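## Example pair
The file below holds two records. Each record gives the amino-acid sequence first, followed by its structure token line.
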Amino acid sequence: MRRAHTLTVLFILTCALGYVTLLEETPQDTAYNTKRGIVASILVFLCFGVTQAKDGPFSRPHPAYWRFWLCVSVVYELFLIFILFQTVQDGRQFMKYIDPHLGVPLPERDYGGNCLIYDPGNETDPFHNIWDKLDGFVPAHFFGWYLKTLMIRDWWMCMIISVMFEFLEYSLEHQLPNFSECWWDHWIMDVILCNGLGIYCGMKTLSWLSLKTYKWQGLWNIPTYKGKMKRIVFQFTPYSWVKFEWKPASSLRRWLAVCGIIFVFLLAELNTFYLKFVLWMPPEHYLVLLRLVFFVNVGGVAMREIYDFMDDPKFHKKLGQQAWLVAAITATEFLIVVKYDPYTLTLSLPFYITQCWILGIILVLTWTAWRFFIRDITLRYKEIRRQKQEHKHEKDKCLSNGDGHSAMLEEQNGNKLRERKL
């Protein structure tokens, strides 16, 4: 039934596109015709994928919604592959086909400089440094971390990713000028206010969703209009709730998986800044916003698929399709950055930054070896030693009571009887 419905929709869409092309005279503009043909091809593919792609773990507001974003992931990955195989100049100029204002080098904004919270030299507005930093990225930080918290569903992981990204900005500010920020911009405005408040609101929302009663009733079975409106609103909430318990220290497999999730999150965050740097896109461009909206929708599905695979590998024997696509997209974006501007990426880190990262990596590796190898061996040795001591204590207790001599005689007689039988 679903296949027949798909073929019907595809037939109608194809006929409509063909009818449009027959009504008008085909323009003699090659660029315009190429863009129109690519858009029509993408629409046909999305129509097919929305009705035929495999369903993911989410069913609200509708499975077709998540199938749509899965197909958008495929289209975006193909676009990235195309950009990857272009020359640097052609790739940047190709962006003009999307927006004629692109393809022009843009100056990066430096958020550092004067880091005084109160500037007595400016009598007109001593707090001008704070107002200069309060741009459109402040609410973007808050809403971004609110949605990331809904994806990860763990306070510790969110805080680790938030703090780690600030360390990455410190480490890479010699490569990208807009990573250079004041200390209070890093830790007060970003980590505490924007990110911290977003994580807090996200955790409160998760708490409400975990306590909510998930008992669904058909829309037409609800007698009151108020109940119908409430049911429509709740259609955009999860069908059921799964609490994420990552437990990274429970096993080596889960620990490596959590470290991999954190690494991919940080790499995707860095790709946001490096991509707009190498492709000459201004930070406020709508393509940057569309990419973030895209990752918000596909990231939630990917995190659920990863958690299901980790939590119940017997039932979920393979990692979900959306998780693989997100990993492939993140890797392809990084390859584009490497190809388009290898000089920036190869700028050597300052010596003290290198020392800090080496020390951090050594500490993580040392803790991993102690927690999952040395500690287990030590606990196993202590358990064997404890069992031997308990056995020796029971034997001494048996020999020290009043029947100790008779017990020894019975043991000797038993040994002799077993020898005769043999």
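Second record, same layout:
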Amino acid sequence: MDYHLETRKPVLGQAGTLAVGTEGGVRGSAWFLLQISPNSRLSQEVVLDVGCPYVRFHTEVHWHEAHKFLKVEFPARVRSPQATYEIQFGHLQRPTHYNTSWDWARFEVWAHRWMDLSEHGFGLALLNDCKYGASVRGNVLSLSLLRAPKAPDATADMGRHEFTYALMPHKGSLQDAGVIRAAYSLNFPLLVLPTPGPAPSTSWSAFSVSSPAVVLETVKKAETSPQRHTLVLRLYEAHGSHVDCWLHTSLPVQEAVLCDLLERRDPAGYLPLRDARLKLTFSPFQVRSLLLVLQPPSTYTP
């Protein structure tokens, strides 16, 4: 309930627990320890990478509390009556003030990978990789990290936790600054894997889209298609705008057709393939699914 905000107190650091983790170069970091209580502790590494638009807070918590709520807060020099929160396949805005009973009831709201507080020309985004309770009151961005309720599960959130959140200041709007792309990068970092044979001389990508407003969210095998070599792609418009974009593919596509979320073909949804590209049109936050039928492996050389 909202009265828990009246009993909060800051967790203070102990002397001698701040240390340099990585010194200079392409990465710099600092590490510190917080003793939350006699039974719980938090260690955190604050990481700044060259070329990265955000500061990461890699956190490890040993949590053994009762009826406690752990949050992190970031005051910002930003003034705005609205804050923006990501939801699945889009985002929405909620007030930063508590003027009505409805606002008081939303002292904490659901957020997916990011929330953002922006004024004209500048903003601050708080990204995370696994936490969903968020709020912005006035100019303070708050993210809920751990709870300790005793009903219906007396052991809820007890034990060791590891997670990362990040702070991203930006110029302009969150769309122009690439907040959505940065949140995806935090949640799905690139994986480097060894490959047999010599390194390829050119770069290769199975799919790419021409507009930053369109996100290719899913690539999977088709569930209901009778053909063996059929993929399903799910894309959505993330900026809240009307946009035309091209979907580029390096795969040997034989047929492309729009489908619904149950992967049923749209009889009027056949898409012409032009120079390994498909043209797609999106309205704000629209989700589109495609069925791509690939040529059998025996008919082409990768």
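Notes on the second record: The mean pLDDT is 92. The chain has two domains: 3-187, 207-294.
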